[in-house]
Amino acid sequence: MVASLGALGRFATFSAVVLRSTLRPPWLVHETLSRCYVTTTRCLLPVIAVCGPFGMVMSLQGLEIFGLFGAERLLSGLVSVAILRELAPVLASVLVAAQGGSSCAAELGAMRIKEELDATEVMAVDSIGWHVVPRVLGLTLATPLLNVAGAASGLTGAFFTAVVMKGETAGVFMHELWALTSPADVWGGIAKTTVFGALIGLVASYHGYHATGGAAGVGKAVNDTVVRSVLVFIVVNYFLTSAFFGQLA
Amino acid sequence: MNTMRQAGAFAYFVWDWAMAVRRWGAPRAEIWREAFRIGVMSLPILLVIAAFVGTNLALQGFYAFRPLGGGRLVGMFVSLAGVRELGPIIAAAMVAAKAGTEMASQIGVMRIREQIDALEVMAVNPYAWLVTPRLVGIVLVLPALTVISIFTMLASGYLVAVFQLGLNGSTYLTFATQGITAMDFVYGMLKAVWFGMIICLVSCWYGFTCGRGPEGVGEATNRAVVTSAVVCVLSNYFLSEILYGGGP
Amino acid sequence: MIEIIDLHKRFGELVVLDGVSLSIPPGETTAIIGPSGTGKSVLLKHIVGLIEPDSGQVICFGTDMAQASERERYAVRRRFGMLFQDGALFDSLSVGENVAFPLERHTRLSPREIRDRVEEKLAVVGLPGTWDRAVSQLSGGQRKRVGLARAIVMEPEVVLFDEPNSGLDPLTSDQIDTLILDMKQALGITFVIISHDIIGTVRVADHIAMLNAGKLVAWDRTEAVLRSPEPVVRAFLRRNLVLPEAEGEQAHLPRAEEARRG
User: Fold this and answer.
1) Long-range contacts, C10-16 (Cβ 8 Å, 24+)
2) Taking the CB of residue B218, how many other CB atoms lie within 10 A of it?
3) CATH classification of the domain holding C242
4) Do B96 and B228 meet the contact criterion of CB atoms below 8 Å apart?
5) Residues 6 or more apart from B25 whose CB is under 8 A from it?
């Protein structure tokens, strides 16, 4: 307990240092954008490949439940809210954590083990500003983009199962989708994933930056990154969702 | 093209492993150790994540079924979604993230430190010695973790429904038990066994094909979790379609 | 006992072994030396069948390692012990469990007998009573010595060393060399050693084979190799040794030629 509080404190300090470096010039715009590009392209296929089937499964099981009440027509609107608000943001973030976050931890960890970070410092270059900040910002920018891609693929999957496989009417599906979905759902998802992306970036670079113990240490940093960043944003997500749905209760 | 080659290499690996099992059997003592380790390692994170997924399901369900006058239906929604889909997939995702990554990095480290060559030289088949106990262990443990994951979701969904949304507790429970049958549980277990095999074989394969140095281990670990998650979710749709969809 | 016949191996474009023939004399110590990247480790891995040759053969105890079935290959390997560069000890096991590993897998000895045998071998390598020590607590030299104990615990006929002295300080290096000499005298084991460390090699080896750019450039008794007129050989050895006068041209590489003819 005390140990984990201590780790939390160190993580907070690390995050503060990263934030300070972020606000201070030089701003490595090109470096940040290229990190964002790399993360987006590497995660794009996994995000689409995971969100699509999830949308399909939602349609499949949703039709069965709504079918009990003869209310199949409600499916699309509710599925779309669920996908835009919850599924796409969470799944995109899980995959960014698994792919982008873990490779960020692996790269920084390898640099730490091979003393490249020390070498950077010795050359009087701020290793956090140079190596960590572009990675964190890159992940922060990439996650909302991937969220949009995930939402699109999830909705396509839902449409495919409902209309093509199960023979619902395309017109009704689209009509209910527009009727029940509001722009706030889209923006909500994007805002959430921006926060999640930053959290993943911080957790990943914290573990990579502090890796010890050779190749095995890098493996452990990657492992910790995936597990802990998922943990952090699932917990944060609960409060965000409650805040949104809480008004309804 | 590259993906096809990788898939081919993976298939070849699975075949080699199967031959090794046929020839050399499985080290019994290792199986129990691995099963225990995988379970203990993945359980805490699984409990937390499943609890939060349960709360989310309850909130979502409440929102979704309000038009049908259905605060009551929240229980049914949570249990159906939990037992059929999210219970197995969340348990699998957490085992992939925790135990799968560990398999990849452990075996990767063994590979680059020549420990796998050492096994070969000591006339011990590395596939039989390293993969089989992990595979049997995960196949034994993942169904159990799935049950735990399902009940955690139901319980946290109950707490949200009753304390946050102010619904009636006994109605929740009635509808929760009405929604599902024993077969749903059996199907959930079948999914868990399949996911376990995927996670273990994929993660071990990335470990065995690990590149040089710390980057190699990092990359193997990274790819293990992404690939096994993607393959699990993709195959989940087909499993659901076969088990519950009954065709178009 | 170990016959290497016209071995060729390339990795992609890179030719690593380019027609190496060598016959390892039983009961004696053979050192394979040469600059880094000339395929010494690859040659060693061919001997135990970890790598398959592109062409040529490696015959150990009458078994062609590349052609043999897995069972036959494993049967041969039980007569081998091998010390890897960094020991290749399993991190999840203790020192004693590491050394006991081959015994537990391949013999029907009781736990008590295994324990006795392991303690005995640990004593041989100068680490008695370290059964419970974790591998992570060992220094580089201790790792190698535990690796050596594991290599000899099955009482093999041939022990292979991949760089026994790399990364060790001169004192520990000396200890390992002395250990090799003692074991050769006491147990009559055939040793094959890969090394950069010329001084240690000259001390322990009865025969020296030198590889350069995938080819065997010297293969003879140690004293003869030290006198070899071959410029590469002299350049390689001179870095660490004061060499005796080179012999006349007629004497160079008799064994290598013999092996090629045979």
Assistant:
1) C10/C54, C15/C214, C16/C42, C16/C214
2) 33
3) 3.40.50.300
4) yes
5) B128
Residue C6 is part of which domain span? Answer: 2-79+189-261
Q: Are A57 and B48 a contacting pair at CB < 8 A?
A: no
pLDDT in tens, C140-196: 888 888 998 998 888 888 999 888 877 778 887 888 888 888 888 887 889 999 987
> Other CB atoms closer than 10 Å to residue A210's CB: what's the count?
18
Cα A141 to Cα A11, A135, B177, C217: the distances in Å are: 21, 10, 43, 59
Compute the average pLDDT of residues B147-157.
92
- What is the pTM assigned to this prediction? 0.82
Closest CA to B136 of B22, B26, B1, B7: B26
Residue A72 has pLDDT above 80, yes or no: no
- Contacts of residue A170, Cβ cutoff 8 Å, sequence gap at least 6: A159, A163
Q: What is the DSSP string of B150-203?
A: HHHHHHHHHHIIIIIS---HHHHHHHHHHH--HHHHHHHHHHHHHHHHHHHHHH
Handedness of CA B226, B207, A225, B43 (dihedral sign): positive
In a domain, C151, yes or no: no
Q: How far apart are CA A32 and CA C159, in angstroms?
A: 54
B124·C75 Cβ contact <8 A? no
Burial class (CB in 10 A: 0-12, 13-18, 19+), A201: buried
CA distance A1 to chain B (A): 14
The phi and psi torsions of C173 (rounded to 5 degrees) equal -55, -45
User: Does the structure show a pLDDT above 70 at A248?
Assistant: no
* B26-45: pLDDT as tens digits: 788 888 888 998 998 889 88
For residue C84, the chain B residues in CB contact (below 8 A) are: 114, 117-118
The edge-to-edge listing of strands for the beta sheet with C80-83 is: C80-83, C158-162, C190-195, C29-33, C207-212, C215-221
- Across chain B, what does the average pLDDT equal? 87
Q: How far apart are CA C226 and CA B163, in angstroms?
A: 87
Measured between CA atoms, the residue of chain C closest to residue B20 is C70
Between CA A14 and CA A203 the distance in angstroms is 10
C-beta of residue B111 within 8 angstroms of C-beta of residue B213: no
List B residues 92-151 in contact with A (Cβ-Cβ < 8 A): 93-94, 97-98, 101-102, 104-106, 108-109, 112-113
> What are the residues of chain B with a beta carbon less than 8 Å away from any beta carbon of chain C?
23, 109-110, 113-115, 117-118, 120-125
Of B109, B121, B125, the CB nearest to C48: B121
Of the candidates C74, C54, C55, the residue with the CA atom closest to the CA atom of residue C63:
C74
- C107 domain-assigned: no
pLDDT at C112 over 60: yes
The count of domains in chain C is 1
Q: State whether residue B49 sits within 8 Å of chain A by CB.
A: yes
Q: What's the average model confidence in pLDDT over B79-105?
A: 89
Q: Is the dihedral of CA A158, A162, A164, A170 positive or negative?
A: negative
Pair B65, B73: CB distance under 8 Å: yes
**Of the candidates C226, C102, C127, C124, the residue with the CA atom closest to the CA atom of residue C184:** C124
Q: Which chains touch C (3 or more CB pairs under 8 A)?
A: B
**ipTM associated with this complex:** 0.77
